[in-house]
Automatic annotation (TrEMBL):
Taxonomic source organism: Lentinula guzmanii
Membrane topology: Single-pass membrane protein
Named cofactor requirement(s): heme
Entry protein name: Cytochrome P450
GO cellular component: membrane
Family: Belongs to the cytochrome P450 family.
Keywords for this protein: Glycoprotein, Heme, Iron, Membrane, Metal-binding, Monooxygenase, Oxidoreductase, Signal, Transmembrane, Transmembrane helix
Signal peptide: 1-19
UniProt GO MF annotations: heme binding; iron ion binding; monooxygenase activity; oxidoreductase activity, acting on paired donors, with incorporation or reduction of molecular oxygen
Subcellular location(s) per record: Membrane
Pathway assigned to this chain's UniProt record: Secondary metabolite biosynthesis
Entry superkingdom: Eukaryota
């Protein structure tokens, strides 16, 4: 009897194991799967969007991929996005976990954060300060920066790429933190581009294993996990830059030397919005 039970359990376990990675009938179509891995063996290590486009031509605007036991649904047309994100927003408002983004930002990046209390606080804050009047008030900054970028392009056209980057960064820094970047080599500008480059490397598809789909990978020791080292480096670069700028805004508010940037308004209304230092940064 014991032998029969053990044999039955063994068969059940093997069948369950064999079904891992297979596509459920209720899912959209997709590439053929193999046991255990699903589509992991053909998932592109880099430039995933190119392969996604190829698969879309074969399987349609909405198709599915199996990454081990987990499922990824890929949406490749604006009509499908509108149908799912607008008409079905009640069930699609949240985002799946993003280990890399959460590890770097602590789950407080409004673009990548999950739908929860912190996200609602961030959205409420952005909605309160990004008013038409506030946007109009900052138009002179854009005019001034546009004037400088035209001057720079006329005087050193060979550096047009750096001029455009400086311009866009200086507009953002001035509006958010009240500190412009008059030269591409300005410390805050170079720090921003370095931090942004690290951020792009960390989030690039194929830059790390599918940690969100295979959660056990989170426990890989740091010395064998280059993505953990990259996350730490990115987090350090971002915090040094943004909290440094935030401290300067705090100092101006305390000294009554404000220049009307968005972060000064947030600091003055932080209790109203329910923001702590991490959320402000």
């Amino acid at each position: 009897m014991t032998t029969v039970v053990v044999l039955f359990l063994l068969i059940w376990f093997i069948r369950r194991l064999y079904r891992i990675g297979s596509r459920e009938p209720s899912l959209p179509p997709g590439p053929p799967t193999i046991p255990l891995l699903g589509n992991l063996n053909i998932f592109p290590a880099e430039y995933a969007h190119y392969k996604f486009t190829v698969w879309a031509r074969e399987y349609g605007d909405i198709y599915s991929l199996k990454i081990g036991p987990s499922t990824v649904v890929v949406i490749t047309s604006m009509d499908a996005v509108k149908e799912l994100m607008e008409k079905c927003s009640g069930s699609t408002a949240d985002r799946p976990p993003n280990y890399i983004a959460d590890n770097v930002s602590g789950g407080l990046n409004m673009v990548l954060a999950r739908y929860g209390n912190e996200w609602r606080i961030l959205r409420k804050t952005a909605h309160a300060i990004l008013t038409p009047n506030a946007v109009t008030a900052h138009l002179p900054i854009q005019v001034a920066e546009a004037t400088q970028v035209m001057y720079d392009l006329l005087n050193s056209p060979e550096r047009f790429y750096n001029h455009i980057r400086r311009y866009s960064n200086s507009v953002i820094m001035s509006v958010l933190y009240g500190k412009r970047c008059p030269r591409y080599e300005t410390r805050e500008a170079t720090s921003f581009f370095e931090a942004q480059h690290l951020w792009e490397l960390a989030l690039e598809p194929g830059a790390h294993p599918p940690i969100d789909l295979l959660p056990f990978l989170r426990h890989v020791p740091r010395r064998w996990a280059p993505w953990k080292i990259l996350c730490d480096k990115t987090r350090k670069a971002q915090r040094e830059l943004y909290f440094g700028l935030l401290d300067e805004c705090n100092q101006r508010v305390q000294q009554g030397d404000e220049n009307g940037c968005y972060m000064e308004e947030i600091i003055k209304r932080q209790d109203e919005f329910g923001l702590d230092r991490e959320l402000r940064g």
